[in-house]
Protein 1
Amino acid sequence: MGLGQGLLLRVAKRWIAGTDSASAIKEALKANQRRMSVVLNYLGEEISDPSIADAHMREYLSVQKAISDSGIKGCVSVKLTQFGLLTDETGAIKRLAEVIGRSEALGQMLWIDMESSRVLEKTLQIYLDVLPSHPMVGLALQSYMRRSAKDLETILGKGAKIRLVKGAYKEPPDLVFNNRAEATENYSKLMETLFKKGDDFVIATHDPKLIDQAKELANSGKARFEFQMLKGIQDGLKDKLVQAGYKVGEYLPYGSQWYAYSKRRISEHPSNILLLLRSLF
Ligand SMILES: Cc1cc2nc3c(=O)[nH]c(=O)nc-3n(C[C@H](O)[C@H](O)[C@H](O)COP(=O)(O)OP(=O)(O)OC[C@H]3O[C@@H](n4cnc5c(N)ncnc54)[C@H](O)[C@@H]3O)c2cc1C
């Protein structure tokens, strides 16, 4: 690793739980000590080589066991393209089935991240196929997608467990809302639907206004839900929510593919550029 990458890794450690599973488990224990559950994600996506897709599956099987052996309150979240979905759907489904099997044997939840629109339809279909026999599997739904209100109605009707996010990919303009404000407005609407018709869902955002709205909706209903936020973002707010008695989870990405992930977090929020610059001087 060059000097530039070494410095960047120092900054990136704010958002990633290390480059290997041992570091991720340590960070998970720290989050548990702050009374947050954890969702571990092994970084990497769009894998086409079956041997790498197998390696990703084995990594999850091993970290699921480590979560259990270490007494950690948490689970994993997977991306279907890291199991090869783009090039070999059957293989990806088989790998997913292995990880679901392990999560059930260990009594853990299993989350499926939602990726770009290239795989949205397939991801949704695979989720709907596994859901009837695997109710402990949950799916992320992105509020920036215009179709999400309809998708939400469909999958809620089938008892889905939803993690509502704004969405993180660059998408063709006709598929998504025009800007962040509209995606936020849609988040607010989808969240109302979740509190009205859903149960056992996740409000995954760092947006203080949406979090306040969720608290209000929670006051007037009985739905079970949890807040989830990414490692290194809104740490003060996470602690406040825990202290106020809300369930909070921290999403902990880890692995050697930390560079692309960190770039996404930096570009999402300009103040992170300052963090980066400060670390250089
Ligand atoms: C638990 C979890 C799981 C996720 N899973 C997925 C997934 O499966 N698929 C997917 O497409 N996306 C996923 N995301 C990412 C998500 O789509 C957004 O890109 C990300 O959460 C930022 O959106 P936001 O809701 O926080 O709102 P934003 O509008 O981006 O931010 C709202 C406020 O939060 C704070 N904030 C947000 N980001 C940062 C930052 N990087 N640094 C500092 N402050 C910040 C700021 O105060 C900002 O004003 C996930 C996010 C979370 C929390």
Protein 2
Amino acid sequence: MRELADNIMDIAQNSISAGASLTEVNVKVSQQDNLITLTFRDNGCGMSAEMVKSVTEPFTTTRKTRKVGLGLPLLQQTAMMTGGEMKIESQVGKGTCVTASFGSDHIDRPPMGDVAGAWFSLVVMNPDTDFLFQYDFDGKVFTFDTREIRAAVDPLPLNHMEISAWIKDCMYQEIKELHGGIVL
Ligand SMILES: Nc1ncnc2c1ncn2[C@@H]1O[C@H](COP(=O)(O)OP(=O)(O)OP(=O)(O)O)[C@@H](O)[C@H]1O
Ligand SMILES: [Mg+2]
């Protein structure tokens, strides 16, 4: 089964492919609003308005000249299935912001899955780019900024064995603490 954490990996990977040097990934859980929101913001190459339109309409577009991927359409479909929505704001040369919201208690909402694992994989697979991760669980916030870690461990790389082990522990522990035993 596809989990939200898989979408996180997928969509953040788009930012890496777009040449982003900084990618922000935000997970926001509001139990009061019955909402889970994922936000991805990057300083990569961006997309034209036409491109934004075509990536969200892959099944209706008549263009056959270009391969159209499935990451964004799947995210959009999942969001809409749960009564949420996906939005893309992008500017060529500046960057992209993708937001997807999900109705938390909707029967079709995929489980959250292993967000710590997804974040960790993104860091060790892309040790030379920076990430700003934020997990907001009902207002309790965990922030992880690879720029800070990078400065602290310089000249060692983020995927150095002991450093990556620490990053992994930190992410799992902090997110677990935020959830306080609540499985989403
Ligand atoms: N953050 C981004 N910055 C710039 N371009 C993007 C970004 N995200 C998506 N795109 C563009 O939109 C296209 C479609 O993205 P999507 O994730 O739907 O599919 P894909 O990445 O091409 O393939 P797949 O995710 O299925 O492997 C990408 O190929 C890319 O050209
Ligand atoms: Mg993709």
Protein 3
Amino acid sequence: MVPTDSLTRRRFAHAVALTGAAACVGCTASDGNLDVLSADHEVLLSEHAGLANVGESVLIDAGTLRPIAVTRIDAETFEVTGTECSHQNCGVTRSGGGWRCPCHGAVFTLEGARTSGPAPQGLTVYDWMLDGDVLTILAP
Ligand code: FES
């Protein structure tokens, strides 16, 4: 027969395991927030040759674990998104007119909206301001 205190420990361990599992219900891999800015970030457009061309994207090292993507739409318009897939945190890459996750195939529009694949949500989307050569990516 198992001693009572041993059963108690076992039940306690089971309860802890259940509590831990319950705490993760609804969690997504995006909870890692690998591409979320904690402060505004300025980008000098002239330092990124790719941003001279409409339709091109440049990955900006803004101090986040995954870079921030800036895409020039026209002379004064940009799309600015994170590059972390919300499924399991992989980094997305440009694919045609949007973004694709190389890990399990999630596809996103250039604006960051999810169009297919296992990602539960789109990419992080940033507001921005343009002042001459300075594009300021606004922290959420
Ligand atoms: S990590 Fe992107 S689709 Fe799975």
